[in-house]
Amino acid sequence: MNVEEIRIKLNKKAVVFKTGGFRPTHLLEEHWIGAVPYSLQQEQLPVDENGIKMIPLLQINLEALPYVPDSLKAVKLISVFISLNFKPVGENLISYFCIREYAYLNKLIFTDYKNEDSFIKPCPMSVHLVEEDRPMWDSADIPTDISDEILLLEEQEEVDYEEDIAVHHYETKVGGYGSYIQGHLGFPEGFDFAFQISSDEKANLNIVSNGRLYFARNSNSGAWYVDCDFF
User: Fold this and answer.
1) What secondary structure letter does DSSP report for 63?
2) E strands along the chain, which residues?
3) Rg (CA), the chain
4) pLDDT over 90 percentage in the chain
5) Of 63, 117, 132, 209, which alpha carbon lies 20 to 30 A from 74's?
């Protein structure tokens, strides 16, 4: 394969989110970091295993996005809450999170969940479709046959993966590939990368040390797998 063929094989679409720059409307179509504006009437703020209320971290209206990966096709809106006791230790960090999925939006009401004690500043996020997102080199996202081709091109034609092939979007995003900081061995079988939440200065969100959270979903069971890495 040549460079262009490799680009095409690795390429995925993604939706990138940016905080600030516009006045929020608080409509259901908006996307938020540091807040969960809409919930079902009977839902309350979730609590962690110690009975402490969790922090509203993210809400994305997938129905309002220009692109949604296959792992989230059955979901219309998603909300994420995080425990104040979050520790990036262990293989699957899902126990520190409450992830709520909604297949229908007609019963959601404006509850405007924000944790007043949280350090995170609620910020609406604008949407940007990117046509090209390609994986980090030090990850399991590049199939072995393609990585072999890349190594061959690097040896024979002085091709550099990061300069000539890679395209990375490090912001909070849905779809594409995880923008891993420390490399990644891949998710368990049946789990596909769905979205990532990145540290965000405007939202005063610092994940451990300028890190990111990676969420993978099993389309068959609906189960979630969460990873974290940082500088």
Assistant:
1) G
2) 12-19, 31-33, 36-40, 55-61, 77-82, 97-102, 108-113, 123-133, 173-175, 191-198, 212-218, 224-229
3) 18
4) 92
5) 132
Structure confidence at residue 139 (pLDDT):
95
Contact 100, 76 (CB under 8 A): no
Segment 112-116 long-range contacts (CB within 8 Å, at least 24 positions apart): 112/26, 112/35, 112/37, 113/35, 113/36, 113/37, 113/39, 113/45, 113/56, 114/34, 114/35, 114/36, 114/56, 115/45, 115/53, 115/54, 115/55, 115/56
Three-state DSSP string of 111-154: EEECCCCCCCCCEEEEEEEEEEECCCCCECCCCHHHHHHHHHHH
The answer to whether residues 179 and 169 touch, using CB atoms and an 8 Å cutoff, is yes
> Distance between CA atoms of 127 and 132, rounded to whole angstroms?
15
Q: Which two tokens stand for residue 187?
A: 């998710």
Name the pairing type of β-strands 123-133 and 31-33: antiparallel
Pull the structure tokens for residue 62.
């997938």
The pLDDT tens digits for 114-131 are: 766 568 999 999 999 999
- Beta carbons within 8 Å of 98's beta carbon, 6+ residues apart: 46, 54, 80, 81
Reading the block at residue 158, the tokens are: 């002085």
At position 147, the amino acid (one-letter code) is S
Pairing outcome for strands 31-33 and 77-82: unpaired
The reported pLDDT for the residue numbered 170 is: 98
- Sequence-separated (6 or more) residues with CB below 8 Å from residue 16: 127, 128, 129, 130, 169, 171, 172, 173
What H or E segment, with its residue span, contains residue 52? Answer: none
One-letter amino acid for residue 227 of the chain: D
- Whole-angstrom distance, CA of residue 151 vs CA of residue 211: 29
